[in-house]
UniProtKB/TrEMBL annotation:
Superkingdom of origin organism: Bacteria
Keywords, in A-Z order: ATP-binding, FAD, Flavoprotein, FMN, Kinase, Multifunctional enzyme, Nucleotide-binding, Nucleotidyltransferase, Transferase
GO MF annotations, alphabetized: ATP binding; FMN adenylyltransferase activity; riboflavin kinase activity
Lineage: Bacteria, Bacillati, Actinomycetota, Coriobacteriia, Eggerthellales
Catalytic activity: FMN + ATP + H(+) = FAD + diphosphate; riboflavin + ATP = FMN + ADP + H(+)
Chain ranges of the Riboflavin kinase domain: 183-304
Name of the protein this chain belongs to: Riboflavin biosynthesis protein
NCBIfam families the UniProt entry points to: ribF
Length: 307
C-alpha cells in the first residue's frame, strides 16, 4: 500500500522531483484509470524514479453539481484504491472553493512550486483550474517550460466504446451490473450502516438488513439483485432489494434491503459492504403478501444456486 500525503503548505514538494505522475479524479478506479496508472508506473520504471497519483480529496463535481452527481465510490475508498494501485505514493490536493478558483497557471504553480515532476500522464479531454479552462494542451505548454513530459492518453476502449465513469454509471442505473463489473475490473460495491426496518421481513420469516444509502452513492438502479454482503470480513450470499419497495413505499425510509443467506447474527448499527453480481428482476408492487413471499423465495433460491 502506497503512502498517502495531503498536499498542503507543509508537504515536501521535493517528492515530485524526477517522479512520474498520473493526474485525475479517478472515480471508480476502473480499467481505463488502471491503464493510465500503469503508464505512469511503467514510465517511472524506465526512468528509475518514483510513480505517484495526483488527485483531489473531494470529487470536484460534488462542489459544482451536487444534485446530479452519482459517485461510484466514496472519496476515502477512491484514495485507498489508488494507494493500492501499484504507485509509490498518492498526493491529495485539497479541493476547496479557493483552490478551485485558481486559474490554470496558478493551479499548477501552487501544486508543484519549483518541483515539476519528470512526467505527467492524463486522459484526453483532461480539464483543470478555474471554470475548467485548463486543458491537456495547457498542461503540455506548462510542461515544456518546466522540463516535464506531458502525455494525454486516448481513453481505453472496451466492448466498442471508451471506458469512463459516466458510462459505468449509466450501466449501473439500468441494472447492468455484470457489464459494469467488466469495465470496473471488479463488481460494483457500496457500503452502508444497518438501520432499523419495518419488521415485515422478520414477520414473514425472511430477515433483512436495512440500509439507507446516500443519494450521491446510489449509482445503481432500483431492482432486485444477487449480491455478496461482507460482514466483518466474511462474505455471505444475499438477495438485495435496491430502492423503496413499492408494497411498503408509505412505511419506510430505508432504500436498500439485503437478505443474507445462512446468517442469523445481529448487525444493527454495523457497517456492511454490498457487492452486486447480477440483476434478478425489477421492483413491483404485489397483490398480496403470499405473492410477495413467493417472489422473495424465488430470488433467494436463484442466489443460492448461482452464486
Amino acid at each position: 500500500m502506497a503512502e498517502i500525503f495531503n498536499v498542503d503548505e507543509s508537504f515536501d514538494r521535493n517528492r515530485f522531483d524526477g517522479a512520474c505522475c498520473a493526474f485525475g479524479v479517478f472515480d471508480g478506479v476502473h480499467k481505463g484509470h488502471q491503464a493510465l496508472l500503469s503508464c505512469a508506473i511503467e514510465d517511472a520504471a524506465k526512468r528509475g524514479s518514483a510513480s505517484f497519483v495526483l488527485t483531489f480529496d473531494t470529487d470536484p463535481d460534488e462542489m459544482f453539481r451536487p444534485n446530479e452527481l452519482k459517485k461510484l465510490m466514496t472519496n476515502g475508498d477512491r484514495i485507498q484504491a489508488l494507494a493500492a494501485s501499484g504507485v509509490d505514493f498518492v498526493a491529495v490536493l485539497p479541493f476547496t472553493r479557493e483552490f478551485a478558483s485558481l486559474p490554470p497557471e496558478q493551479f499548477l504553480a501552487w501544486t508543484f512550486g519549483e518541483h515539476a515532476p519528470a512526467s505527467i500522464h492524463v486522459g484526453c479531454g483532461f480539464r483543470f483550474g478555474a471554470r475548467a479552462k485548463g486543458t491537456d494542451e495547457t498542461l503540455a505548454a506548462w510542461g515544456s517550460r518546466n522540463m516535464c513530459d506531458v502525455t494525454a492518453h486516448e481513453l481505453l476502449c472496451l466492448e466498442g466504446a471508451p471506458v469512463s465513469a459516466t458510462r459505468i454509471r449509466g450501466l449501473l442505473s439500468e441494472g447492468a451490473v455484470e457489464e459494469a463489473a467488466r469495465l470496473l475490473g471488479k463488481p460494483w460495491k457500496v457500503r452502508g450502516t444497518v438501520v432499523s426496518g419495518r419488521g415485515e421481513g422478520a414477520q414473514m420469516g425472511i430477515r433483512t438488513a436495512n440500509l439507507r444509502i446516500p443519494d450521491n452513492l446510489r449509482s445503481i438502479g432500483d431492482g432486485v439483485y444477487a449480491a455478496y454482503v461482507i460482514v466483518d470480513g466474511k462474505r455471505y450470499k444475499a438477495a438485495v432489494n435496491m430502492g423503496v419497495a413499492a408494497t411498503f413505499a408509505d412505511r419506510t425510509t430505508s432504500n436498500c434491503e439485503a437478505h443474507l443467506l445462512d446468517f442469523d447474527g445481529d448487525i444493527y448499527g454495523h457497517e456492511i459492504e454490498l457487492e452486486f453480481i447480477a440483476w434478478l428482476r425489477p421492483m413491483r408492487a404485489f397483490d398480496d403478501v403470499d405473492e410477495l413471499i413467493a417472489a422473495i423465495m424465488s430470488n433467494i433460491e436463484w442466489v443460492r444456486e448461482h452464486l
